[in-house]
Amino acid sequence: KNQVEQSPQSLIILEGKNCTLQCNYTVSPFSNLRWYKQDTGRGPVSLTIMTFSENTKSNGRYTATLDADTKQSSLHITASQLSDSASYICVVSAGDDKIIFGKGTRLHILP
Amino acid sequence: DAGVTQSPTHLIKTRGQHVTLRCSPISGHKSVSWYQQVLGQGPQFIFQYYEKEERGRGNFPDRFSARQFPNYSSELNVNALLLGDSALYLCASSPSSRPSNYGYTFGSGTRLTVV
């Protein structure tokens, strides 16, 4: 069964600190993996996209990694800001056009 | 360029009523997908339309229906509303019939509350 599991479910860190969010998937055949940021009550906004051959992708202070062998991805946020408070959703696309969403990690940045 | 626009932004309905949600895709995008996102969960796929034809349907009851118009805008209709239909409804547009490969952009959503 195609599944995307994210951890932790929620995370609280102080402003300026770094953090790493995890995504494990059992999607086959794998096509690509996206990380989205979703502010409360808003639609998700794409941060990064990685295909099978890519193992790292950066977007400003956001860096995503992909290990296709272990079917794991991580999103690292450097020097967190208050505006980083949001849900971060891992989305995996399968070769048969299925798009599987994780439940997200809720990140709270404290001043 | 305008992004994906959804209307209304918020809506309150009572049980048993009917609701219509609207979505205008990015100019040039021919694919529209609808998702339901319950609080604390990831989006759940409802429908995909491409060139006015249904290309995919998620595991939702027949109370949910949709259509796409010649200008590629789309409507999602929900009949006989239940309390459990309360959610954020997201529309995503894509230039391709295969948004999993070519990418998709989400609108800001419609927050539906059923009381």
Report on this model:
The complex is a heterodimer of chains A (111) and B (115). Chain A is built from no helices and eleven strands. By secondary structure, chain A is mainly beta. In chain A, a hairpin with a 4-residue loop joins strand 7 and strand 8 (72-77). The radius of gyration of chain A is 13 Å and the shape is globular. Chain B starts with a strand and ends with a strand. Chain B is built from one helix and eleven strands. Chain B has one helix spanning 99-102; strands spanning 5-7, 10-13, 19-24, 31-37, 44-50, 53-57, 64-68, 74-78, 87-94, 105-106, 110-114. With 115 residues, chain B is mainly beta. Chain A binds chain B through residues 4, 31-32, 36, 41-46, 49, 89, 93-94, 97-99, 101-104, 106, and chain B through 4, 40-45, 56, 88, 90, 92, 98-101, 103, 105-109, 111.
How are the secondary structure elements laid out?
The complex is a heterodimer of chains A (111) and B (115).
Chain A lengths: L3 E4 L2 E5 L4 E7 L4 E9 L6 E7 L4 E4 L2 E6 L4 E6 L8 E9 L4 E3 L3 E6 L1
Parallel strand pairs in A: 2-11
Antiparallel strand pairs in A: 1-3, 3-8, 4-5, 4-9, 6-7, 7-8, 9-10, 9-11
Chain B lengths: L4 E3 L2 E4 L5 E6 L6 E7 L6 E7 L2 E5 L6 E5 L5 E5 L8 E8 L4 H4 L2 E2 L3 E5 L1
Parallel strand pairs in B: 2-11
Antiparallel strand pairs in B: 1-3, 3-8, 4-5, 4-9, 5-6, 7-8, 9-10, 9-11
